[in-house]
Design a protein that fits this description.
Chain lengths: 201, 478
């Protein structure tokens, strides 16, 4: 997993609440057996009309937001399905950080498996960041170590993340490798389980 | 010495599966059952191969093919699947289960079907278990008193490699359902009413236990419908404490314990309930006698309205963002504020999905179809109505009861099992602006096909809607 420490780049506003995983990456892109290349499907129905032409009004199609790295999004981002294709698509498109007041649980977890930072801020701070992202200058800086987001006006907002998740993201740790350190604990648990619940083997 | 504080059902399952705790705040939980399917596993198996890791417990893993399979011609086999990407994904699963020694019910096997129908049907789902699957509707299995939730593909790889999940404990929430429902109201309406009340993010960070007399009165399949929709309220998992109904449902299922092991298992399962003095972080009570047959009007499962109600006015919402969201939803749905929801004409009806494709669901829909036939009515002109059973075994049972004949006589299509038009990964999907009465779980924009307009409702309501040609009140057919 790629590490996350500092990020500087274009931030785009998507103020709608409840942006779900079907919108982030529609179903037709889930038939891949790869992790890569999903950026082409990101927000597909927002980006393209029924004829496959770009919709100029959609924020990520606007020249000012080309090269987007940070998404400033409405409440409850990533609700819906468990598809990890959602963070894969965001990352493949270049987005490394999504800022919102809240994230759906499974999406939130999936972000941390892939080095994508879901930053939780207060409603007031989200409102302020949304305003700045809509402005002419919308290059933000995100500092995971300091847990801050700096907006172009100089406003600095702090975001929440628990210490364990932060550390894993900073170091880019491999979760399976970490768990396999506990292999004897798992062996011991299975021995106990076999005795207590023989029908479950 | 102070007494030990009471534990919730969730606490008890959690404690029984805790392998280790990391200083970073993560816990390693043992997983009793890992269900897998074609869409969210290919990248997980590639990860295993890259790192030369085996599957730790193939015997605790079960594979089905459900998300992208066609609902006709399944006997022709995977090579006959028209969509090359879907075919490759199905072939990839076939190769992966073979290489790693995992039990698999392939397309066309009578035991195959939607993963959340198959687990319980096979008796693989049991009380007190931990169950995961790369699918958010894994919450369904909570109906048996199992801690069950969806995971991402990286976590699928983690569970395959270690038979554990790294996770953090959620909060405890309890929703108590009291009262007696009016005729025509059931588990689907309970769930929609709850989501309408708490919102689609209302349960985020929680595991919800459903309790109370109205839950005890629900059948196991009704409980599955309710737990299935828990994720639509933002909570990863729903739970119902196991009771005599649970044990009766499980007894004799292929993977249920037998003989002395059965007795031992039941006595173990009886320990899974919330202690009377257990603490819940959040509590809510819902009186089901006040719930009408419910449908959705918008593009989020929280956008609910009683079937005798009207489409809301965006101006009636509290915040500017909500108002904008409602206005956009109405535009997408092609509805006008203040119109009666029953005025919405449908072109499609879908009875199926992991929410509502079990035998009881099909019986309820077929009963409405039979009433229609008795009145000389059939599916309305201009409406295409599909019934997609949840598994090959559900299909077989329905056919043994003659339900297929009722559906066919009334003008419904009788299809082969799979996820089908719930998410439209297979050829069953809506065209732009087609309106669909659906027994599935998500009315998101584009969910059932780009531009498609989904109204969620119960199987009986969907059948009534098929007959009338517009959103209809099931009570007209009772």
């Amino acid at each position: 997993m790629q590490k996350f420490d500092l990020l500087q780049g274009v931030a785009a506003p998507m103020p709608a609440a409840n942006i779900d995983t079907d919108q982030i990456i529609p179903k037709q892109f889930l038939k891949t057996v790869e992790r890569e290349g999903l950026g082409k499907g990101l927000f597909y129905d927002f980006r393209f009309d029924l004829e496959g032409q770009e919709k100029p009004e959609f924020v990520l199609n606007q020249p000012a937001y080309k090269g987007v790295r940070v998404l400033i999004a409405g409440d409850n981002f990533g609700c819906g399905s468990s598809r990890e294709h959602a963070p894969w698509a965001l990352l493949d498109f270049g987005i490394r950080c999504v800022v919102s007041t809240s994230f759906a649980d499974i999406f939130y977890n999936n972000c941390f498996q892939n080095g994508l930072l879901p930053a939780i801020v207060s409603a007031a701070d989200l409102h302020a960041l949304m305003g700045e992202a809509k402005g002419a200058n919308h290059v933000f800086a995100v500092d995971l170590q300091a847990q801050t987001i700096s907006a172009p006006s100089g406003q600095v907002v702090s975001f929440q993340i628990d210490a364990g998740r932060k550390e894993k993201l900073l170091k880019g740790l491999d979760a399976i490798g970490e768990t396999l350190v506990h292999e004897t604990d798992i062996d011991r648990f299975e021995d106990k389980r076999r005795l207590a619940r023989p029908w479950a083997a | 010495m102070p007494a030990m504080p009471g534990k919730t059902l969730y606490d008890k399952i959690w404690n029984a599966h805790l392998v280790a705790e990391d200083p970073n705040g993560e816990s390693i939980l043992y997983i009793d059952l890992h269900l897998i399917h074609e869409v969210t596993t290919p990248q997980a198996f590639s990860g295993l191969r890259t790192h030369h890791r085996p599957v730790r417990r193939p015997d605790l893993t079960l594979a089905v093919a459900d998300h992208n399979i066609p609902t006709e011609g399944q006997a022709l086999g995977v090579d006959a699947v028209a969509d090359p990407e879907a075919r490759l994904q199905l072939q990839t699963l076939g190769r992966n289960v073979k290489d790693f020694g995992i039990e698999f019910f392939p397309m066309g096997d009578i035991r195959n079907g939607i993963v959340h129908v198959v687990g319980p049907e096979q008796g693989r789902t049991q009380p007190g278990m931990t169950i995961v699957c790369g699918d958010s509707h894994t919450s369904t299995h909570g109906a048996f008193g199992a801690l069950a939730h969806g995971i991402g593909t990286s976590e699928v790889e983690h569970v395959l490699a270690t038979q554990t999940l790294r996770t953090r404990k959620s909060s405890n929430m309890r929703v108590t359902f009291v009262g007696e429902p009016i005729p025509g109201v059931g588990a689907k309406d309970y769930a929609l009413a709850l989501i309408g009340q708490i919102g689609t993010g209302g349960g985020t960070g929680c595991v919800i236990e459903y309790a109370g007399p109205a839950i005890e009165a629900l059948s196991i399949e009704g409980r599955m419908t309710l737990c299935n929709l828990t994720i639509e309220g933002g909570a990863r998992a729903g739970l119902v404490a196991p009771d005599e109904k649970t044990f009766a449902y499980l007894m004799g299922k292929p993977a249920a314990p037998k003989g002395a092991a059965w007795d031992m298992a039941v006595s173990y399962w009886r320990g899974f309930f919330s202690d009377p003095d257990a603490h819940f972080d959040r509590e809510l009570t819902i009186d089901v006698s006040k719930i009408a047959p419910t449908v959705t009007w918008g593009t989020s499962p929280e956008d609910v309205v009683a079937v005798d109600g009207v489409v809301p006015d965006p101006a009636s919402f509290a915040s500017e963002d909500k108002q904008a969201g409602a206005a956009r939803a109405l535009e997408y749905m092609g509805l006008t504020a203040g119109q009666k929801i029953t005025d919405a004409k449908v072109q499609r009806v879908f009875i199926g999905s992991c929410t509502n494709s079990r035998i009881e669901d099909l019986r309820q829909a077929a009963a409405i179809a039979q009433t229609a036939l008795d009145r000389g009515l059939r599916v309305a002109d201009g409406v295409r109505a599909m019934v997609v059973p949840g598994s090959g075994l559900v299909k077989e049972e329905a056919e043994a009861e003659g339900l297929d004949q009722v559906f066919l006589a009334a003008g419904f299509e009788w299809r082969e099992p799979g996820c089908s038009m719930c998410l439209g990964m297979n050829p069953d999907r809506l065209s732009p602006e087609e309106r669909c009465a659906s027994t599935s779980n998500r009315n998101f924009e584009g969910r059932q096909g780009r531009g498609g307009r989904t109204h969620l409702m119960s199987p009986a309501m969907a059948a009534a809607t098929a007959i009338k040609g517009h959103i209809a009140d099931v009570r007209e057919f009772l």
